[in-house]
Design brief:
35 strands; 33 helices; Rossmann fold; Beta-Lactamase; 8-stranded mixed barrel; 24% strand
């Protein structure tokens, strides 16, 4: 108790006109709280009003205004009347004590004081005062909760009349709480509402409580849906809690109406609809599905989809897996196979088509599937008559993808039997979109028709040229004797396209890129032939225009890597599998980690961690390095700020590519990264190679100057291996030279490497530049570098590049 009071710093006011008495009383209350004293009645009242005490120790006999008068004034003041007053006097006990107590005093202490007893009694009153305040706060909290609770709470006495209600404004039943007090529940709630509750009230009186939903009618005629709880208080009556569930009831009604609307819709549409659970068992058939399958809904419920809706190929009669199974297994929409027939319950066949789709709940969990299908027997009969239109391009009358696929499969079978080669070429017109944009699509369409005729005229009768859409053509060349023959065909077609085209008096010059894939050299099936030819075409377009490229494994690997890289960057570097590792930089003298270099890693789908050498060149070539550079910069700043907050002020070094420097806004990106993460600019170091300095020196100089104004330090990475001129050391604002690891690796065994290292160290010292030695792997290398004057080392001797968490363990 004492400790609690001490923490609360109780305020004690001592009122006595004799200083010695004040001293004695003060000793008795030492440590119980903050002590103040007054020597006159008016002074005591003024002090109490300015700073309300928790207890007043009041002497009775004082000049001008005695203790009784002071107590009377205190009890007459609303703000002070609850303060406990303990009288302290040397007068006789009975008469004075009774008078003191009758005036509102809570206790009576006699002089001379028995200090331990007085202290104990004062402690008791302080504790009581504290408990009283806590109870008042709790009561006020309860009152606030009841008044602001979004529910109607009322206490009805045993006679059914209102004892308490929290509806101060009368928002629930139109009667404010003050007016409802003493009113019978029937009158307050209304006859109809009370009659509806009466039956549940009897249940509550029997069982102790009852809970139910009901609809109330307010006095203004509006409806209120409430969840009602009744609690029996025996002789004290009962409690009522009503929670407004009007919106929930409306939502339930709307859901019911919507389900009924969907049911009527599904039963009225012309397509068959079947729904299943997550296991593929039937949960619903609409009337059309009953007619088409021959099963009634009540018979089919719970049975597997394969029994109710068996499928087979139209011609061959081979059974086909129901698309529902694939939709459930892969959680995606699945279309039915071509030439698909439904085997009715009576054995008859109906040609059908459409699709199946998974059903996911609000949490994305698979709960079932739905398949919608219809009879296409007549439509397919019509399609047979329109085979030519279906298999040929409307603009050029060339075979389309469907017919090409059929001929490709036939050619593959023949090539496998004969042992001959076959070739698939993809041809794409260069910059053809510019013609459509500048001259109009009508001109573009006429040119495409002329290109189609020329290609057909340059091929053998057994060859196929197909238009796939846009300005892309695919050429199938079966029965080739050798690779050289395919190269001759490719060159012939390229020249055919390059000849001028004439539309009236207008001349148009076109060129084309081609990608070539060979069977059996590159591919053994149709899918690989398409994919490899596409990869070769892509490689040709990347290399320039009017080119032809044959497929190779290196082309495909580069294409797959590029696409994976692009996909991951589109996902966002944070979610795309890109990681930032850190290699520590160690001060040789103190052996402390004084900085780190941020190095990117890429985790591909299969989980392999790729080093920068595997993807950074491709990222730079395609421009994707800009997004990756932004990601590394921000992540490094975030990690650096976290280490700084943890007491490790490490300078974080980030590599900068030439594309980033050439972009023109790199200094602004750095400024935004520092502002966003809160990392001090002095703890960020940007590493650039010597070749970067040689590109657009004026622009680079301006960018580096802006970065220096921010407070960022600049380091030259791989120093000594790049641009041969050293003038940039004088022109550019450089802070750090990093000795390339190739020199460090050979410095103990090669005199030239050792001389180069010594020269770099000497030059840096002469120009007051800091040094970092890269690739330090042995103690001997470290000692040799330290003797030359290089203190900061980086390399496997001190740690490989590691994730941030592993580095933090090293720091700890």
């Amino acid at each position: 108790m004492f400790n609690d009071l001490a923490r609360d710093q109780a305020k004690i006011l001592i009122v006595d006109d004799v200083p010695s008495n004040v001293h004695v009383v003060r000793e008795a209350v030492r440590g119980l709280g903050e002590v103040r004293f007054a020597t006159t009645g008016p002074a005591a009242l003024d002090m109490a009003k300015r700073s309300r005490p928790d207890v007043i120790l009041l002497d009775i006999e004082m000049p001008d205004m005695d203790g009784y008068a002071v107590c009377r004034e205190i009890k007459a003041t609303p703000r002070l009347r609850d303060i406990p007053v303990i009288f302290v006097t040397s007068h006789g006990q009975s008469e004075n004590e009774l008078r003191a107590l009758s005036m509102g005093g809570v206790d009576f202490l006699h002089k001379p004081l028995n200090v331990p007893v007085a202290r104990a009694r004062i402690q008791t009153h302080l504790a009581l005062q504290r408990k009283t305040r806590q109870l008042a706060r709790a009561q006020q909290d309860l009152t606030d909760v009841l008044q602001n609770l979004p529910a109607f709470i009322a206490h009805w006495g045993a006679d059914g009349r209102n004892v308490f209600c929290n509806d101060a404004e009368g928002q629930w039943f139109g009667i404010p709480a003050a007016a409802m007090l003493g009113m019978h529940a029937r009158e307050a709630l209304g006859d109809a509402n009370y009659a509806a509750i009466d039956g549940y009230l009897s249940q509550a009186l029997r069982q102790g409580n009852a809970s139910f939903d009901m609809s109330f009618t307010r006095r203004d005629g509006t409806a209120l849906h409430g969840q009602v709880s009744l609690v029996d208080r025996q002789e004290a009556g009962y409690l009522m809690l009503v929670t407004d569930v009007t919106e929930r009831k409306r939502a339930e009604q709307a859901l019911f109406d919507e389900k009924e609307r969907i049911r009527i819709t599904l039963n009225s549409i012309g397509d068959a609809v079947i729904a299943t659970d997550a296991e593929g068992c039937i949960t619903f058939l609409n009337p059309i599905a009953e007619v088409m399958t021959g099963w009634l809904a009540r018979e089919a419920l719970g049975k597997p989809i394969d029994l109710i809706m068996p499928l087979q190929e139209t011609g061959a009669g081979r059974r086909i897996a129901n698309p529902v199974r694939l939709a459930l297994a892969e959680s995606r929409t699945v279309g039915m196979a071509l030439d698909c027939a439904l085997v009715r319950r009576d054995g008859a066949l109906l040609e059908v088509e459409d699709s199946a789709a998974p059903i996911l709940d609000h949490a994305g969990q698979l709960t079932g599937s739905i398949i919608v299908f219809h009879d296409v027997s007549e439509a397919r009969a019509m399609a047979v008559k329109m085979t030519h239109l279906a298999q040929h391009d409307a603009l050029t009358n060339l075979p389309n993808r469907i017919l090409l696929q059929d001929r490709l499969l036939q050619s593959l079978q023949q090539a496998e039997q004969s042992g001959e080669r076959m070739c698939l070429m993809m041809l794409d017109l260069d910059h053809f979109q510019l013609i459509n944009d500048s001259m109009g699509h009508s001109v573009g369409d006429k040119l495409l028709q002329q290109v189609a005729k020329r290609l057909q005229g340059a091929l053998r009768p057994s060859d196929t040229v197909s238009r796939q859409g846009g300005d892309e053509f695919i050429i199938l060349l079966p029965g080739l004797g050798g690779i050289e023959q395919s190269a001759l065909f490719a060159e012939k077609l390229r020249k055919v396209v390059a000849e001028p085209f004439w539309l009236g008096e207008a001349r148009y010059d076109l060129s084309a890129c081609m990608g070539v894939s060979l069977y059996p050299d590159d591919s053994r099936d149709a899918e690989d032939l398409y994919r490899h030819a596409d990869a070769a075409l892509y490689h040709a377009k990347q290399a320039g225009r009017n080119l032809c490229r044959f497929f190779s494994g290196e082309i495909e690997e580069a294409l797959l890597t590029r696409r994976a890289l692009e996909r991951h960057i589109r996902m966002g570097a944070e979610q795309g599998g890109f990681l930032v590792y850190y290699q520590p930089k160690v001060d040789m003298e103190s052996q402390d980690i004084v900085g780190v270099e941020a190095l990117m890693r890429w985790r591909k789908e299969e989980g392999d961690i790729q080093s920068p050498a595997d993807f950074i060149p491709l990222a730079e070539k395609t421009g994707l390095i800009l997004q990756l550079g932004q990601f590394v910069l921000r992540q490094a700043c975030r990690d650096g700020k976290r280490w700084l907050d943890a007491g490790h002020p490490l300078r974080v070094a980030v590599n900068v590519s030439s594309l980033q420097m050439a972009e023109g806004c790199f200094d602004e990106e750095v400024r935004e990264a520092l502002a966003e993460t809160g990392l001090p600019a002095s703890l960020l170091q940007l590493e650039i190679t010597e070749s970067v300095l040689a590109q657009d020196a004026d622009k680079t100089m301006a960018t580096l100057a802006e970065l220096k104004r921010l407070g960022v330090s600049i380091a030259i990475d791989d120093f000594g291996t790049g641009y041969s001129s050293l003038s940039y050391l004088k022109l550019f604002p450089i802070d750090v030279l990093k000795i390339d690891q190739s020199f460090v690796h050979d410095m103990l065994s090669d005199r030239n490497s050792a001389a180069i290292v010594a020269a770099i160290v000497s030059m840096a010292q002469g120009m007051s530049l800091d040094l970092v030695a890269e690739g330090v792997e042995s103690e001997a290398q470290a000692q040799a570098l330290f003797k030359l004057g290089c203190r900061v080392m980086q390399g496997y001797r001190y740690g490989k590049p590691m994730p941030a968490a592993e580095l933090e363990r090293s720091l700890a």
